[in-house]
Design goal:
- The protein is of the alpha/beta class and about 270 residues long.
- It is about 40% helix and about 20% strand.
- It contains ten helices and twelve strands.
- Strand 1, helix 1 and strand 2 form a beta-alpha-beta unit.
- The longest helix has 16 residues.
- The protein binds 2'-monophosphoadenosine-5'-diphosphate.
- 2'-monophosphoadenosine-5'-diphosphate binds next to helix 6.
């Protein structure tokens, strides 16, 4: 049976094996998907051994996405732009190929599952770390009217804005309202909220948090209190997995039903 795995550290609580098992069932693929605890010392060796032993594909998660990027022989355009790799496969000639499906997974979740077009919209993205870098190109591909990156450390926002040809701002200098606000800071993880002015949210504003949780994230709570609808990143998690699955198996599973099921299980 074809072998796949997700490598990261920690990895025990990864939802990826359950997600890919469901995709395999749905699309009638014969495959096995497990977890691999990544080692700080020997990550690259672990990856090579996985493929030498006949493994067909690996997902890579925190904290190894940049190291996976560095060891690839060939990179997709979106992986190059992201500077990070979350999906690996071995080409027939033995080249290690790296892709990044995080951004397209998020964009498909927003545009297909949540029916929010990004075209011609004023988009605000909060944060300027790896997570934001990973989604910028797929967001820009949707031809928004503008993309503004706001970050606590303005220089990091400016760097990304220069590279991707969009706008940078501090939180304080932002002028709203925006049509779409995407939270890509890791502030939610610690229950914190960047200093966001209420005027960023208007009547039409729709909000997306790349983080997700059992309870509404602090960012989505802020949006909710201002009357804005939105969604968390559970669909992004399933979406990036679906794109990796597509790369490996050339068939694209349905994600909406699985997101709903995972949501129920989290309750
Ligand atoms: P990731 O890979 O999740 O993007 P990262 O590269 O460490 O992680 O980036 C974390 C992002 O969250 C950064 O934009 C960080 O802002 P700084 O660049 O100023 O550090 C942002 N962040 C984290 N905690 C925050 C907080 N409490 N308020 C605002 N921004 C925060």
């Amino acid at each position: 049976m074809d072998q796949y795995a997700v490598v990261g550290n920690p990895i025990a609580h990864s939802k990826s094996p359950a997600i890919h098992a469901e995709f395999a069932l749905q699309t009638k693929q014969s495959m096995q998907y497990t977890t691999l605890l990544g080692e700080d010392e020997g990550f690259e060796q672990q990856v090579r051994e996985f493929f030498q032993q006949g493994g067909k594909g690996l997902n890579v998660t925190v904290p190894f996405k940049e190291r996976a990027y560095a060891m690839c022989d060939v990179l997709s355009q979106r992986a190059k732009q992201a500077g990070a790799v979350n999906t690996l496969l071995m080409a027939k000639n033995g080249d290690l190929f790296g892709d990044n499906t995080d951004g397209i997974g998020m964009v498909r979740d927003i545009t297909i599952n949540h029916q929010q077009s990004l075209k011609d919209k004023r988009i605000l993205i909060l944060g300027a770390g790896g997570a934001v870098r990973g989604v910028l190109e797929p967001v820009l591909d949707e031809q928004p009217a503008s993309v503004t990156i706001a970050n606590r450390t303005l220089a990091k926002a400016q760097q990304l804005a220069d590279h991707f040809d969009c706008l940078a701002s501090s939180f304080e200098a932002l002028e709203g309202p925006f049509d779409i606000i995407i939270n890509g800071t890791s502030a939610s993880l610690s229950g914190q909220l960047p200093p966001l002015k209420d005027e960023l949210v208007g009547e039409q504003t729709w909000c997306y948090d790349m983080m997700y949780g059992k309870q509404r994230t602090v960012f989505l709570q802020w949006a909710h209190e201002l009357g804005a609808a939105g969604a968390d990143g559970l669909g992004m998690l399933v979406g990036q997995a679906a794109e990796a699955f597509y790369l490996w198996r050339q068939t694209r599973p349905d994600t909406a039903s699985l997101v709903a099921r995972l949501r129920e299980q989290m309750a």
